[in-house]
Batch of 4 targets.
Target 1
Amino acid sequence: MSETCKVSAERRGDVAILWTDGYINNQGGEEIAREAYAQLDQGVRALVLNLEKTRIVNSIGISILIEVLEKVMDRKGVLAFCGLTPTIDKTFRIMGLAQYAEIFPTQDEALRKVSAQSA
Amino acid sequence: MTMPVSPAGLEELWKRIGSILETDAPLPSRIAEAAVAATGARDAALYVRDRDAWVRAGEGLGLDADGHAVPEPLPEGIFVRDGDLWLPLAVEGEIHGLLRLLGVEAAPESSNALAFVLGAVLGAHRLARQVRDAEFELKARLLELESLYDLGLSLGGQLDLSALADEVLFRSISLTDAGKGTLALVEPSGALVLERSVGDDVFSARDVKTWSLPEGGVINNEAASTPTAGLPLATCEKCLVVSIAVPGRRLGVLAVADKESRDGRVLDFTATDARLLSLFANQAAAAIETARLHRDAIEKERMERELELAAAIQRQILPRDLPEVPGLEIAAKNVPTRQVGGDYFDLFPLSRGRLGFVVADVSGKGIPAALLVSTVHAAVHLQIDEAPTIADLVGRIDRHLQRYAATRKFLTCFFGVIEPDTGTMRYVSAGHNPALLRRADGRIEQLGATGVPLGMFPKAQWKEQEVTLGRGELLCVYTDGVTEALDARDEEFGLGRLADLLAAPARPSELCAKVFAAVDAFAEGVPQYDDQTLLLVSRKG
């Protein structure tokens, strides 16, 4: 079996924080998408993805994250990333995710910025 | 397939469906809704090609998917089948989709225009997706290049093998879209250094030693049924395996397995994947070798520091000045090798004008030998005034070594006590090289061992012998570093050469210098690996 990615979420006001733990591949990406769409369906418009427990992302995972990002943008929402390893940070910047979703070093910074944007 | 469509007809149609097509709804829904609005159909569904089959795209407008298969073979152009109208949505003759309009039994006048417009929309969408996919692919290739560059930089300064292995494994899995991977590093002996896996192990690290992977690695896209290169694979469907190696030596194995796709299928690994993984493995090999060399250099530096310290301790132990003993003339010299050896000599002025002395050679070199020398030195100084006889003194030191010496080492030694007035010398030789006695007439006598080396056998005993040193006669005690000094042809200096040098009458200090000069000349600059110690005592005439 591949390394299983676990995703947990918590609502903080208008913002939902999603924590990933493991490899963001097809399975991990789908888990993130499922949780993100559930949050969007509950009216959340701002998502923070904390990836501090993720060390690997593949292109399938990235394409799913792009789909999630597009859906968030379709709903006039905002998505931010935090806790990225330097390798994943660079990957997101090259693959274009950082064009539409800001990357923050810490969750607190991401929450502050995203809360202000979604207010 | 080109359809005759008038501009007026198109304009008219666009007025009716343009606003629907411009919404944010998913494309299949927009197309179906526009088709319903344009034709008054009860419902509509869009079918698109997925590999070899037509599949329903999107959710449609409540259409039940069952029993709505696309007719095979597909009739050409617009057609009606079972009370439904089918519109091929094509651009430049390529059909991008099939639109099914329920309850439309005859093609309305606007059918061609509708097929043209919706075909163009679907074609544009496909083109946009292709552009996006191509852009994604391009970025993925750029990421590969950047990763290679970054890995080179990162590994260049990475001396921690564990971090290095993680870096290589994570990037390998990530960039080949593998579901899992394993990296194992081994010693030249085959012993496992470390193993890392993401997901289940692709292989068992204990098998690494016996693998015979061909250069460039192995792509095994039928791993489950056809193990390759004697590769006992664990749980995977398809795998890609490369060696981590420097010329002539395998450092480890890197494997990734089960390449993922968006639809959950396990894809074949490609030649590009293999090339990428080989590049990663090459970078890893260079970095691992660098880390190893660095580790070795640090270890060597540490050893050298320790040896310097040990040498300093040993220098402190050896006597700085030789005692002045009336009636005797003494010369001694110790030449240590670069590595700390285990030679030791000492002289002890005793009561009634006697002189005690010892020359010892500890087995081994380096720190353990230096520690043993230090132990012997302490034991001798503690016991020299307590022991009633030399044999007893040697026995006490032996028992001390058996009890307290940290390592299983032994030493040979020659202990003697000379009474200058009478020339009587009592001695014990514990497995030591024969001491040489130059008699007044120039003859050389050998004083052989009177017992086994110290620290070797429990409860060993030593005989004490007595010999008389006549006036002008000379005693020479040495270590094997002198007689076993090697020249470039690996020939030893030998006892004979030493004896010949001693035969000619001379003062001990002159003889001492002469012996060392002769040994030096004999060795012709060949580095020696054993300490050289020489003690000469003559009884004044």
Target 2
Amino acid sequence: MKKVKINISGIHCASCATNVERSIKQLKGIKSVSVSVMTNKAIIECEDSLANEDLKNAISKGGYNVKGLEVV
Amino acid sequence: MQMPEREDGANSEINILKRRLILSWIFATVIILLMFYERIFGAMLNEKLMTVLFLVLSFPIVFIFGLDTIKSGIKGLVTLYFNMDSLIALGTLTAYITGFFSLFFEIQDYSSVSAMIMAFFITGRYIESVARGKASQEMRKLLELGAKNARVVRNNKEIEIPIEELKVGDIFIVKPGEKISTDGKVVKGISFVDESMISGESMPIEKKVNSLVIGATLNQDGVLYVKATKIGSDTFLAHVISLVEEAQGSKIPIQKAADRVTSVFVPVIIALAVLTFSNWLYFSKDISISIAAAVAVLVIACPCALGLATPTALMVGSGMGAQRGILIRKGEAIQTMKNIKIIAFDKTGTITKGVPEVTDIYSEVVESKLLQIAASLEKFSEHPVAKAIVKRAGNIDYLSASDFKVFRGRGVKGKIRGSEVVIGNRLFMKENKISTVKIEGILNGYESEGKTTMIVALAKKIMGVIAIADTLKEDSIEIIKKLNDMKYKVVMISGDNETTANAIAKKVGITQVVANVLPEEKSKKIEELQRIGMTAYVGDGINDAPAIKQANVGIAIGTGSDIAIESGDIVLVNGSLTGVLKAINLSKATFGKIKQNLFLAFIYNACAIPLAAFGFFHPAIAEAAMALSSVSVVANANLLRRAKI
């Protein structure tokens, strides 16, 4: 299990935050995900086997940009 | 750290919105003037030309200043990742297109309305961004708190270097009035340091050699030479920031309901708009009225108010906490707090200072003489009890002692000016053939109060008794009383024997005591309490981490940088119990604000959408109402600052 923080741009409303959550949740191995419209950050708990690239792709697929990724 | 960059990002977003807002309203004003002119003086131009003029004037507002919104909205519609913009894009585009159609068919031209909708939308977003910026002001202050420079000696010269160049082990100098560059240990100098920005503790704290200092706190009157122990992302401040930030991103259970609504909100509204349109068309046979009602439904609906209700209040609340040394690690704790019935406290280090102090002295000679002899011997010992005695003796002239020896669990022995000095418990006296019969009454008296007694004997003759106990923190009595008044069931859990535990409990006003609890059993005791009611546990977080975890709300309490910051749902940086009360008040106030906000947002949508569907709102007014609702939610969150914490 790992914890990943992702800085995202383009989240300007609450629906955007739920959209990002939705696209991340579709990945396999996600335990929890929380995206805040206030901090523009996603905090994800997921299996170690899940590649960070997959997380990034899921976010950009929904039309949002990844500005930074940090494994805590 | 990446945060300052984000702040710039937020600022530049506000500036962009501001520019768009001004430009939009320049065009919108022209449109409004034209509309009024037409109303009052009749058509100044022929109707078709007028429409063309509106289409031209509206174009920049909708398609240049509102381009981001239109683009993101359409993208949402295409990918089925609907968002707020989808509604606005649908609404404005529908209205705009009527302008073209009106050139060829019998239909009302709503192109000017599309411009008004977008202008109001941009205005709303601008005000909301400013308000959101305000909501995070405490967080921003925290981010700006760190020192930028460090003063070091290089080649025998004092120079200032950027903080990034400072390494662990470097010695830096802090002059009076300067910020301490990073976490470290004082190697030279003495001074008072204001740690209020980190702990909320208003009294400056004395720092001398070997004291630990926290980066970003303010040195007051002396010069300190500090050896850097932690830098960059390892510092206490950096930990606090990342912790608060994480909490702000965490979900509160109550928000999940709101999220469920937001996630289906947009498609539902689009369906409602279609329904509105077809109903109006069926009953009124007037396509223009039908379009107006449908557009009003699209733009009046406000998922944002719902979605912003929780995070904005959480942002303000956790920021307020951070300023007062209350770190909310898990947003959930805010909601759980209101259901807490029982508050269990660890004794040592939580209710008490955790450091033994001399409380009473019985002396057969002059008291200072007794202390002088005792301290002259005890200064060789590292035992906390010995330290307490030395501390109480203060600045005295030590007598030269020899043959010092420690007897574990008994006491110490040595020679002062040729006479034998024995300090210790009853057992030790007996072993040294010193009778304690004469002072039994005094010993029993102290012991019934839970105090440890040290008997001092000089040349086989008892000189006196020093009583030592862990003392209460200054505010313990007051806070426990307040918690009792608030109808909480207050419980003390302690590893001490019943006498000691009860003595402290009685002093502090706690009636329920669980004594003789081994550290590993504490979580089990919490479990038992939880059968009676939701339980919060306050402990130091170091040896009672499992108990903190077990409790419904775990509160870790500590002093300055020693704190176990990674444990607990709430962390109190300042060691005093006042923080517990403040944390309760803050949680309740924040949760109350969240509920208020969600209520506002639900009620707004529940009233506004039907009214729009029944055609009570002009689309432009509908958009203004929408903007107002999301702004008012954020503004209301900012009002949390007025709460008494």
Target 3
Amino acid sequence: MTPAELVPVPYTWVLALSAILFAIGVVGVLLRRNGIAIFLSLEIMLNSANLAFVAFAYRFATGHVTAAAALDGQVFVFFVIAVAAAEAAVGLALFIALHRLKDSIDVDRANILRW
Amino acid sequence: MLGSLWLIPILCLAGAVLNLVLGALKAPKFLVTVVGVGSIGAATVATYGALWEYLHQPYVEIIERYFTWISAGEITVNASLQLDPLSAVMLAFVSFVGLLIHIYSVGYMHSESEAGYGRYFAYLNLFMFAMLLLVLGSNLPVLFVGWEGVGLCSYLLIGYYFEQPWCAAAGSKAFIVNRIGDLGFLLAIFATFAVFGTVEFNEVFAAAAGHPHQYEGAATMIALLLLVGAIGKSAQIPLYVWLPDAMAGPTPVSALIHAATMVTAGVYIVARCNVFFRLSPTAMVVVAIVGGVTAIFAATIALVQNDIKKVLAYSTVSQLGYMFLAAGVGAFTIAIFHVVTHAFFKACLFLGSGSVIHANSGEQDMTRMGGLRKYLPTTYWTFLVATLAIAGIPIFAGFFSKDEILARAFVAGATDLNGFGDVYRVLWYLALGGALLTAFYMFRAVYMTFHGSFRGGEEAEHHLHESPRSMTVPLIILGFLSVVGGSIGFPGQLFHKTGWNLIEDFLHPVILPLGDAHGAAAATENAVHAIGISTEWLLVAISIAVAVVGWLIARSFYIGKGAFALPRRLADRLPGFYRFLFNKYWIDEFYSALIVMPVHRFAVFLWRIVDELIIDTLFINSAAFTVELTGDLLRFIQTGNVRNYALAIAAAVLALAAVLW
């Protein structure tokens, strides 16, 4: 195929995929009771955000902006991944502690901090 | 000693501080005595040293500036003391009488506890400090410090037996009533500064005397405000009510503070600021009216009192009235002369009454005394001498000063002083009536206490004893001064000898000549020479006659076979009038109903309604209750369920997105 036949994926499609993934993540966080499952849903939300970053970086790279600015979105993804890793470390430690206490990681059972 | 005038009050202050410590440590009474009497003794020596040098110098006034006390914008007040003839006279008798009364107190207070004894002498020394500061201050604010200081000590000493509620109440009463007067005094200081730009006596008086017409209005205002202060401090109508109650304090305190020294501060300030008063005919006549009316009013109450100290208290109010009358007719030097002689004989009377009370184990009711002459001979003779002096019997001290006051009041009426001649004539009659009553009630006290037979029961009679030496010696000295003290104001003009009247000549420089022969002032100055020698002799005869008549009436009422029968019949004949006098015209009840109770009710209103209901309940408690209620409702949001929080966050984000769309 010649380059002319390669039709680029419109960035709006990527954004739509990001939105769908985000919604799935939100629903997962709200509906699941298993702590690990909530955690996974959270990771989906984060990565949907990453996808949006990349999509915008792709979009703006084709315009009249400088190369450095075009890289901003790509670089930001690495930060998000780094923070997500740290968050995963803390989160998993919390669930281990919760499991030791309650023999379960059902978040509905961790409900004694209330009125 | 000149150049270190500060030493005189500071010695007393040092004694006060030291005694406060000694009292707190419950030190032996001997130490307290040494410090208390010693510090006043040293101050007295310092005083007389300074006076001795002062009398040998040509200066009229010596002003010592120590440091700038207040400096704010245009206001500058120096901490400075001044020695001039007026403060010299005051200083001389205040320190000396104060020393005598300190010595007397050693005997009178000997049965107090160590702590009480120390406290007593600390307060008494502090009083001397404040009084000497008052007398020596060279400007109004320094004087005011002393003025408030003596008021404070008066309060502390009236309430000395504060375990008894009525003593504490009497102290509070004195303090509060004096506050009313002090407000006037304070306003007078402000007014003086506003008008003259300075509060130094010599500068203010020089300015006022130099331009009488320019300052007449201001002088009237300042003089009347000062008079309000003087009325409070010197217990004149209408603020006299605290002084009779002040008798709740120990008797030497009554002698020192409430007879000889502090209460004369009002007369002192009027004499000190005589320039203001002389510039203002209105102020002069007001002073005279206050004095003359108080003189006879208090004397009528004293007629029927049975408490020996109450008689003396009303007598003090009455005599202070004479001093104001003297000032009001322009005889400022005579007013100070009467202050001095009064200090001698009234201190003697009070100390004598203290000796009587001491012998009677605290009994003050004269109807339970009688015949004490043979048990307390020294007390009797000194008391009698002082009575002769206050009654105005010739050669005794009070005769000279009181006769001069009466004469000057007559002159004021005869010469139609400042156009108020009618007023002054009436006041002369009142003063003459007061003199009659004075002689009567004082001899009544003497006869009821010392003559006849003892009425206090056998057991009390058994305890009667003459007081110790520390009490009788001051009595004898004061008794002696009550005899000869009048010689400093010998009326030389009666014998065509000017210069015999030492105190008048000495004090003359204090009465500044006024610039342009101002009407009011000129009248007072010329009034002295307005009547002839024969008229003056006639006035002397009248005042002697009045005193003797009062004495004779008392004699026929209270001594001999028909003792007490005549006064009792008189009381029965005029029951309403007797009760009127006996209950002191119901003035206390009147003030209570008119002022104290409404203020009390208003205070209760502020307490119950404004403070407790509006501020506490409506504002503070309701604010707290609102917060609590809100919290109670909102806390149900906190379910403890993590997914609820997550839902809330998600919903909020959605809502935010919808809003920002």
Target 4
Amino acid sequence: MKPFGISAPRNTRRVMFERLEKALCDAPSPPKRQPVASASDTGQPDRDALLAAFLGNLDAAGVSHATAGNPDEAAGAIRAFVRAREAQCVAIWEAEVLAGLTGCDVAGVVRGMGLGVVMPYGERPCPDTARAEVGITGAAAALAATGTVVLTSGPGMPRSVSIVPPAHLAVVPQSRILPDLAAYFATLSPVAGLPAAIHAVSGASSTGDIEFVYVRGAHGPVAVHVIVLGWL
Amino acid sequence: MDTFEQRAEKAAADTRLRGVLRRAAGVLRGLRERAFADFEDFEAARTRLREARLRSVLRLPEMLARLEERVTAAGGVVHYAGDAAEAREIVVGLARERGVRLVVKGKSMIGEEIGLNGAFAGAGIESVETDLGEYIIQLAGEGPSHIISPALHKSREDVAALFQEKLGRTADTAPELTRIAREALREKFLAADMGVTGANLAVADTGSVVLLENEGNIRFSTTCPGVHVAVMSIEKVVETLDDAVDVLALLPRSATGQRLPVYLSVFTGPRREGEADGAVEFHLVLLDNGRSRILADPVMREMLLCVRCGACLNVCPVYKTIGGHAYGWVYPGPMGSVLTPLLMPSRETFALAHACTGCGACREACPAGIDHPGMLLELRRRGVEDMGWCGPGQRLLAGAAEAALAHPLLYRGLLGGLRAVDPGLTALSRLPVLRAFARKRRVPRLRPPFRSRIGATSRERPGRGGGR
């Protein structure tokens, strides 16, 4: 029996790098990056066009949605979705974080419904989240071209909330809608560092692994619902 | 052990498998057509992807050093594995040191390449594949037959019987079968101590690993257990997020016909201070296992641009006839026929170079513009030179054929003689060097020379032969 610990020789790295350097000694020089026409060259696409494209692609991705024109409408839309899912218990991002991200007191609305609320915590956070029927998050961005909601990890923004419960509700201010993935990546700074996890979510968890039959609800949410806050 | 030829022959004669493959090919063709229907300029996108990959592959030491630096700065740990055994030792070692009992795995071709499940089993650690397709083939004790859709060879009935046998529960439809797997695997996710995934690509500038999936099993595997280990072959790195965008513009489209998969995840180090979930430890295992040898080979270097989308499998007439298992290892189809002999050079693996009709459909579909047929021709040449793929009889015959083709008079004379004594080529095809070749082919009858026939035809039907 081998002792515990990594038994790979310590010089593996050095040997590998030497081999790679040697392998490339006669290699041609790599191509330079060609500039690409980006959204910013053609002027910012207008807010309404982005929203229309986003909603259209949410439909295409099988994601239901509602657009709220003011905080009351948003509260109504949140309550309507949670009720429609017949949820007794919801998992939700921290109140202040959600308020900061969405400019809307999402947690307050949910508290007002008198439901059980779980927050993942401790050594094994997922079993807690698994008790919830709906997971409620904000979003760092939304992508119009693909009907995508982008979630980042951080304090008060547990990752399990958007993957473990059978339904995921994302609340997105309209101003966070970007054209596409390239536009979102352009907002990230390698110098400042990326969040530990970024999840770009386009639709409900699905699989086609048995005879290519599309099945909605593989491991994660069967339903994804987006509420766009139109006044923000 | 059986040879590639024997396996291919057996697979091609399997009518059930042929039916499954034919259906799959139809679906995959439809997905591809739909994916590129709205696509403006495939050639331009392909050039961008190819250049993004080249920028990194041609500067691989620099890219890996930067990746290591950034992953480390984000709190992750980078490990280097020269070969499969080292990679297994590192990953299983990480599990052992932490007293891990249950590992949940995302689909990873590198995991298959290094035989990770076997290594975990040998160490008494349970490792469960959590991608539905991989879960099915793990239960069946088989390898993947497609790099994107590993259980493509299994019919619904196969899966139903398998679940009945292994899980004691079954159903008739794909949604019900999926629900059974969902429930079985949900328990595993919630109890697992370690998640092991592959990596679709890594970004050197940010120290990130990018993973694409539809099911959510990778998200569970990286969110719930305390440790996330990503295994990746060294060439999968790109330099910048912009380069990643160029790869992502074509990868999901080419793989599954999606503009983006349901989940595109970017992981940069482990869980940070103040976060409630996500792996507390992040390890990135970088595997060479023959890549540096490919990099040193100017003709074959191009294979390192491959992004593992599986598009070449879906369009390949050979793959569509024999399926994935006949190729004998984890990488099937055109990319596998090139990669397998390069990663594991042997007389047996060089047989794969002959699994090509030269039709070029793979090259056309490849988002990196890899010239598989050209590389397979070169591998055939090397098979002859280095791997003894040509006996003295074949050499003699090839020499004779070459001489005949180079000298018209000799050619006409030889054919004239054959027409006289063996017009059905029956005697010729009994020659030992040709017997195996002729056995699986309809040997043509020698007819009068084309020149004499075309002359006769144009005389018989005046006006048809002349151009307009």
